[in-house]
TrEMBL record:
Keyword ATP-binding attributed: yes
Lineage: Bacteria, Pseudomonadati, Pseudomonadota, Betaproteobacteria, Nitrosomonadales
Alphabetized UniProt keyword annotations: ATP-binding, Exonuclease, Helicase, Hydrolase, Nuclease, Nucleotide-binding
Pfam family of the protein (one): AAA_30
Protein name from the UniProt record: ATP-dependent exoDNAse (Exonuclease V), alpha subunit, helicase superfamily I
GO-annotated molecular function: exonuclease activity; helicase activity
InterPro entries in the cross-refs: P-loop_NTPase (IPR027417)
Length: 1154
């Protein structure tokens, strides 16, 4: 994926030096080539030319702004200095427009060579305090004064490709090698010119002149080949009025934007590359690294050089060092973050206590610090009588003077001193006779003439305040320590990313470890590209570059996991499937307009980060049909074939010695009523499987054909083991066999669908239509409070909300899995047993998340919360140790977490511990997912017919010449040749654990974006006896909050209602009579919507905005005739008509219908 980010410069950082370092790495491109010592006769003469000016080969600068400023061409150190000065406002062309907000800083260097910012108090006392309060003395002459600022300088795009391209380039002939490198550079520039320029605007949406500069590198930090282009757009936009403004590219916040740029760039590169380099053809591959062919059903993931499998394995092995180093550095960063966060929390706790202390001791004048006092003429006017003054100040130094003869007595009696915090009170009054000067008619005082008056005199009371004197120095010191802590953290992060640290990490990784020597030796052996002997596939084996799709399939892909898609998402899909490149932008707009007119798609009146979101009418229609079909199943009657179900249950009771509860019996009886549909909702561990198993026994005995279906292969396997179904399969496989005519249903069939909450709308629609047409019976079994479908929609939830269906549902809420009271209480609380049948109460409970908090309280009571460790590494070591020391077999214990990254880290930690203990041993096998030994616990990640299913767990019993023998938990033993879809299985995801029952469960809690109440419920209901929860000390509260979140599944029924309501308003009548006031309001509203979507651009370019401006200016606007927006319906043919769209380069096929 292309990397896109904002580049910022902070004070103390030499931007010029940073850019020049990038140039020095460009020069190293030549040295890098020489290091491979490729035997190329033409190399010498050309290499001399390249060495003379490598920057001319590997750098570029351009754009209208750089053309004007004479900066276009290739980069030099002089140009770099000029670009840096322009961006920082140090050049006369930008100094009037770019102002850095500077702050004065006093800096001293610590023993580690890092800058420490000093406060005024530090400067006075000659020392500063570290975050842990250690005093560090410094000399005045060591203090340096500087100015500080933070400035966004560039928007950077890092154009990368599959690593095979980086390995191919150094093996080419010199002419081809140079051509390939220039092609990467030229394609990046083409992306800028044809795609990125339209997004270069200021915050008001204004366009202007901009520039760019780039440099090409052909190696990465690990020393492995890594061809990539750094493309930078300086944060300078020159408008038509000559002013220079900052660039605001909000689109970089949108994931679909990143994906669209990535796919357009790569499709442009693939087209040019394959036309130029016939000996190094690029092919598409899927996420499992399998080649895309005409027979493939998988989606295109990326493109690679069509090397044979052996060569691709060598490249992966050669890239392993980078992966290992990156992994270790990532782990070190996480630990550093944990430690830093704890220290920050400690300082912030001090800050909170300080603020509370300030609040508790808050005061207002005349309550304040005694500044001065003494006798003086009243208000210091010499003509006035003698009086006494007291000056007090508030906490911020604001002073106020109080006067009163009695103040002298009060001050003397109170014994207060200057600087004391005092309470001054003059509210008590007494009447006294005083002589006051007499004034003439003009208001002037008559000298020497007084008159006697009775006035109220303040009786003052002064005392030392009981409130504490809170020094502002404390706040300043706390802030300084926090800033130093953050600076130290940033310095350590910088070091972790440095080449020096990467080398040290690699040396540490290479230290001999038991069982790891061969693995690391293989990595070292493949260091030189010239020695790798990379070979291409045979021509007939090379896969497709692109695989075209009809628009229906494109829309299905875009809405596979969410009902929403954006224009950028469509652009990405068109680029990777059709190879449109930059043209995809125009085609996407045309396609969206055409599909809207044909009522295939509709805007949802909602935005992603920056773009309008669309959905398909088909999805909403399918979900509505699902509800209607299910209603029809319930209302359709069939003859009852088993008349005495109770007797059949009693017979099985005698045979098994097991007594089902009332709810389970009702489940079984409902299967044999006269309705063709049934829904059974059961809490985890409530005995759904037992009841389903007994139901199939009775049904088979009565002559029914029983079919068990599930959303995943793992659940399908469990269904086969736990029931007597005549046929079990995944729903995908069932739908395919029905479509191919290999499986036909009749009214004699009963279809059981387990974990039906995990079935998406499309699959449910195909299934229900098949069942309904055959007149068969369907029984949906599931729990909407567990993991929902990955695919779009959730039909089971829609059924439970329907007024006709919800009252006919069977419930199993008595949990039978847990074997002790506390485990049962935890499971019942997590599963919402008490409110499960009350939809309103359950909704309110889920919205509050109170049940999640209660579960954590219950875990805390029994000491099952393990959150004392400060770092992720310590926490993972702790959970791994406890998991391995658990005496249960691997089949009877479970370790669960949220992300694949944590799963891999825990798996590797446990594997290393077992290697050291000698519990796993023998020949090593390695695939793309990891390394394996005899005795390792594994999990399969793909369905392979008649071999294994996705999610199947087992143990490796032998490894011989890449043939792996596995004893699966089901009891089956399989020998598999070179299994690629196999991963270590000590830890697994919450999703994979659904449906499992074990004795003890261990949960590693992390603050992951996919956490929610449903995942938490699955984790808390797996164990019969004990569940323990592990998290780092600093993250624990965040983890708890993350599990309080509700699932963000979108109801297609509700979405459809919202769209219908908007369409109804738009299409009430063809012509709606409106008065002028109503018209003005509607015109204004439409203009506002335009602003929301397009931003506030030039008024003259937007008729709607011109109308808005006219309305604001009270100008008359020509009345519009409000016409229904609903377009005429144009029939869509089964196969879309193909139009030919002319291109500058070639003719392309477009998938837009006429």
């Amino acid at each position: 994926m292309i990397g896109i980010s904002n580049v910022t410069v902070k004070s103390g950082f030499s931007y010029n030096k940073y850019l020049k370092k990038q140039l020095s790495e460009v020069v190293e491109n030549i040295d890098w080539r020489q290091a491979y010592n490729l035997k190329d006769i033409a190399l010498e003469a050309t290499m001399q030319t390249a060495l003379a000016d490598p920057l001319a080969l590997y750098t570029r600068s351009g754009g209208a702004l750089f053309d004007e400023w004479k900066l276009s061409g290739h980069l030099t150190e002089e140009k770099i200095d000029m670009i840096a000065d322009l961006q920082l406002g140090k050049d006369k062309r930008t100094e009037a427009h770019i102002k850095l907000k500077k702050t004065i800083q006093h800096i001293v260097m610590n023993d580690e060579g890092h800058a420490i910012k000093l406060t005024q108090k530090d400067l006075k006392r000659g020392f500063y305090k570290t975050p842990d309060k250690q005093k560090i003395v410094f000399k005045p002459e060591d203090v340096k004064t500087s100015t500080g600022f933070v400035k966004k300088t560039d928007i950077e795009f890092v154009f990368t490709q599959d690593s095979s391209i980086s390995y191919a380039i150094p093996t080419m002939k010199l002419e081809d090698r140079l051509a390939a490198e220039q092609m990467l550079i030229d394609t990046a520039i083409e992306v800028h010119d044809k795609i990125l320029k339209q997004y270069i605007k200021d915050y008001k949406g204004r366009t202007g002149e901009s520039g760019y500069y780039l440099y090409y590198h052909n190696d990465g930090r690990s020393g492995n080949p890594s061809s990539h282009v750094h493309f930078l757009i300086p944060n300078m936009l020159k408008l038509s009025d000559g002013s220079v403004r900052a660039i605001e590219m909000d689109e970089i916040k949108d994931k679909d934007f990143h994906d669209s740029i990535d796919k357009m760039y790569k499709s442009m590169l693939v087209e040019k590359w394959n036309a130029r380099f016939t000996d190094y053809q690029l092919e598409a591959y899927d996420k499992d690294h399998q080649t895309i062919t005409h027979e493939s059903n998988a989606e295109i993931h990326d493109w690679r050089v069509a090397y044979d499998e052996d060569s691709l394995q060598k490249i992966r092995a050669n890239s392993k060092s980078k992966e290992l180093i990156d992994q270790k550095i990532s782990e070190a960063k996480k630990d550093l973050f944990n430690q830093h966060s704890i220290k920050v929390a400690e300082i912030e706790q001090e800050a909170t206590a300080y603020k509370q202390l300030v609040n508790d001791n808050q005061f207002t004048l005349p309550h304040g610090y005694l500044v001065s006092h003494g006798p003086a003429k009243y208000q210091h006017i010499k003509e006035n009588q003698n009086s006494y003054f007291v000056v007090v100040s508030d906490r911020n130094g604001k002073e106020k003077t109080f006067w009163g003869v009695d103040l002298e007595r009060a001050i003397k009696e109170s014994n207060v001193q200057t600087g004391d915090l005092i309470e001054l009170n003059g509210k008590n009054k007494e009447k006294v006779k005083v002589n006051v000067p007499v004034k003439d008619d003009s208001g002037k005082i008559i000298k020497g003439k007084f008159e006697e008056k009775i006035v109220e005199k303040a009786v003052w009371h002064v005392e030392k305040s009981t409130k504490q004197i809170i020094s502002k120095d404390i706040e300043e010191e706390i802030n300084a320590r926090l800033e130093r802590l953050n600076t130290s953290y940033q310095n350590k992060l910088t070091y972790l990313d440095s080449n020096k640290n990467r080398q040290e990490v690699w040396r540490a990784i290479k230290q001999p470890k038991k069982g790891m020597a061969k693995f690391l030796k293989d990595i070292e052996l493949a260091k030189d590209v010239s020695s790798m002997n990379l070979k291409m596939k045979k021509t007939e084996e090379i896969g497709l570059s692109f695989k075209s799709k009809k628009y229906e399939k494109i829309l299905e892909t875009l809405t596979n996991t969410s009902p929403f898609f954006t224009e950028n998402g469509l652009i990405a899909e068109l680029s990777k499937t059709q190879g449109y490149g930059a043209e995809a932008q125009v085609i996407a707009k045309k396609l969206i307009r055409g599909l809207q007119k044909r009522e295939v798609i509709v805007d949802t009146n909602s935005l992603s980060k920056t773009q309008l979101q669309y959905t398909t009418h088909e999805l909403i229609k399918m979900e509505r049909e699902n509800v209607d079909i299910m209603k029809n199943q319930f209302s359709s009657l069939q003859p009852k074939r088993v008349n005495d179900v109770a007797n059949e249950i009693a017979t099985i009771e005698k045979q098994t010695g097991i007594t089902p509860n009332k709810e389970q019996k009702e489940f079984i009886e409902s299967a044999f009523n006269d309705k063709q549909g049934q829904i059974v909702i059961g809490l985890p561990g409530s005995g759904k499987s037992l009841a389903a198993g007994w139901t199939t026994k009775i049904a088979n005995k009565a002559g029914y054909r029983t079919i068990g279906l599930a959303p995943t292969g793992k659940v399908s396997t469990a269904l086969a083991n736990e029931t007597d179904c005549n046929f079990t399969a995944t729903i995908d496989k069932f739908n395919i066999e029905v479509a191919n005519g290999d499986l036909k249903l009749t009214s004699n069939n009963i279809i059981f669908v387990d974990e039906s909450s995990m079935v998406g709308t499309r699959n449910m629609h195909k299934l229900l239509k098949t069942v309904n047409e055959a007149g068969a019976k369907i029984i949906l079994v599931g729990d909407p409070n567990q993991i929902n479908s990955v695919a779009t929609g959730n039909s089971l939830n829609e059924f439970l909300k329907d007024s006709e269906l919800k009252d006919q549902v069977n419930y199993l809420v008595e949990i039978r899995r847990q074997k002790n009271d506390k485990a049962l209480e935890i499971a019942e609380t997590s599963a919402l047993k008490e409110v499960y049948k009350d939809a309103d109460l359950m909704k309110a409970t889920k919205e509050s998340g109170v049940h999640v908090i209660k579960v954590f309280d219950l875990l805390e009571q029994i000491g099952a919360i393990k959150n004392s460790h400060t770092t992720t590494t310590e926490t993972i070591q702790a959970i791994s140790k406890d998991f391995l020391e658990d005496i249960n077999s691997f089949k009877d214990k479970l370790l669960i977490t949220s992300t694949n990254k944590s799963i891999d880290r825990i798996n590797n930690t446990i594997q290393e511990r077992r290697l050291e203990a000698g519990e796993i041993f023998g020949e090593q096998f390695e695939n793309q997912k990891g390394k394996f030994f005899i005795g390792d616990r594994i999990i399969m990640e793909k369905n392979i017919k008649d071999e294994y299913n996705n999610g199947d767990l087992g143990t490796i019993t032998s490894i011989e010449n890449n043939k792996i023998t596995i004893e699966f938990d089901s009891g089956k033993i399989k020998t598999i040749d070179n299994p690629e879809q196999m991963r270590l299985g000590y830890a697994m995801s919450f999703e994979k654990s659904q449906g499992m029952t074990v004795n003890n469960a261990y949960i590693y809690g992390e603050n992951a974006p996919n956490n929610n109440q449903e995942l938490f419920n699955v984790g808390m209901t797996r164990a019969r006896y004990s569940t323990k929860f592990y998290s780092t000390q600093i993250e624990h509260l965040q983890v708890v909050e993350s599990f309080k979140r509700e699932s963000k599944r979108v109801s297609l029924i509700e979405l459809g209602k919202e769209i219908d309501a908007r369409m109804k308003v738009r299409s009430l009548d063809k012509i709606i009579p409106v008065n002028q006031d109503t018209l003005a309001i509607e015109q204004t509203q439409r203009a506002i919507e335009t602003i929301k979507q397009d931003g506030l651009k030039d008024m003259s370019d937007k008729p709607k905005l011109s109308k808005l401006k006219a309305l604001i200016d009270n100008k008359k606007v020509k009345p519009d005739v409000v016409i229904a927006d609903k377009p005429s319906i144009i029939p869509i043919e089964d196969k879309p008509t193909i139009e030919k769209v002319k291109s500058k380069q070639k003719m392309k096929q477009i998938i837009v219908d006429r």
